[in-house]
Write a structure and sequence with these properties.
Number of strands of chain A: 10
Strand content of chain B: over 45%
Radius of gyration of chain B: 14 Å
Number of helices of chain A: 0
Oligomer: heterodimer
Strand content of chain A: over 45%
Largest sheet of chain B: 7 strands, mixed
Structural class of chain A: mainly beta
Radius of gyration of chain A: 13 Å
Helix content of chain A: under 10%
Helix content of chain B: under 10%
Shape of chain B: globular
Number of strands of chain B: 11
Distance between the termini of chain B: 40 Å
Order of helices and strands of chain A: EEEEEEEEEE
Distance between the termini of chain A: 36 Å
Number of helices of chain B: 0
Largest interface: A-B, 27 and 21 residues
Chain lengths: ~110, ~120
């Protein structure tokens, strides 16, 4: 099983600032099989980024993903008030189980 | 538009069984693999199970292997999760989710249901 470790656990920033969220895999993951999700309280997760760097339909271009191998990054260029939420990384590679990171909570400072 | 609607959640005593359903609409159900993902209270997301678009392949996370069954009724466009020998550790909101890409390609989850809460308690 591939373990995903996200850092930091909590990130406190102000609107307008840049956010950088990290996800490290316990073994190499195909870039074609890596995603980021956003979850707000009481809501289902929403797909933000797939294939490591492709924005999902309707996702603003302030969200970007990068990385390969074992290290992946989600960057939010300028935080909007609606961006404060919990973010999860996921790998969906060639074998099951698919796994998620433990999440990074993005808090308003 | 695509809709996934879970039902069947509730409170169940330890050791008992419960069946969740996920009714779908707005897409060709028979073309997509479907998943169950759960989230314990205050915790992160945990992938639980998948069934392939044709129903021929099923996989489970280790903690539910042998206790949970996943199935689909293509005529009803509905996904199921039969959960047995439930314990307190199975308490969670259970989401159904659909692959973005059809026909079993390894794919991210583009559509999610609203979640069905399951509480295992005496």
């Amino acid at each position: 099983e591939i373990e995903l470790t996200q850092s930091p656990g909590i990130l406190s920033l102000s609107p307008g600032e840049r956010a950088t969220l990290s996800c490290r895999a316990s073994q190499s993951v195909s870039s074609r099989s890596f995603a980021w999700y956003q979850q707000k309280p009481g809501q289902a997760p929403r797909l933000l980024i797939y294939a490591a760097s492709t924005r999902a339909t309707g996702i603003p271009d302030r969200f970007s993903g990068s990385g390969s191998g074992t290290d992946f990054t989600l960057t939010i260029s300028r935080l909007e008030p609606e961006d404060f939420a919990v973010y999860y990384c996921q790998q969906y590679g060639s074998s099951f189980p698919y796994t998620f990171g433990q999440g990074t909570k993005l808090d308003i400072k | 538009q695509v809709q996934l609607v879970e039902s069947g959640g509730g409170v169940v005593p330890p050791g008992r069984s419960l069946r969740l359903s996920c009714a779908t609409s707005g897409f060709t159900f028979t073309s997509y693999s479907m998943h169950w993902v759960r989230q314990a209270p205050g915790k992160g997301l945990e992938w639980v199970a998948v069934i392939s678009f044709d129903g021929n392949n099923k996989y489970f996370t280790d903690s539910v292997q042998g206790r949970f069954t996943i199935s689909r009724d293509n005529s009803k466009r509905t996904l199921y999760l039969e959960m047995g020998s439930l314990t307190a550790e199975d308490t969670a909101v259970y989401y159904c989710a659909r692959d973005q890409a059809p026909y079993g390609s390894n794919s991210e989850f583009v559509f999610w249901g609203q979640g069905a809460p399951v509480t295992v308690s005496s």
